[in-house]
Amino acid sequence: MSSPTSSLSSSPASLGSTSPNDELHLLSVTCAGSVRLPLPHVTFRRLSVHPASRVATVAADAPLDARSLRLTVTALLHEGVNARLYRAHEDLDDARMDVCGAEKTTTHRSREFVLKTDFLFAEGRREDTLAREATHYGTAASLQGVVIPRCFGLFEARPKGPFGRPIRCLLLEYCGAPLRARKLSSLPRQVKARIIDKAFYFHDVAGMAHGNLWDGHLLARSSCDDAPAHRSTIHDSCKALHERIEPAADSEPFFVDLSDCTQHACHCTMEVVEGDPKPSPSEFKCKEVWELVCALGVWGSES
Question: Mapping DSSP to helix (H, G, I), strand (E, B) and coil, where does residue 136 land?
Answer without folding.
Answer: helix
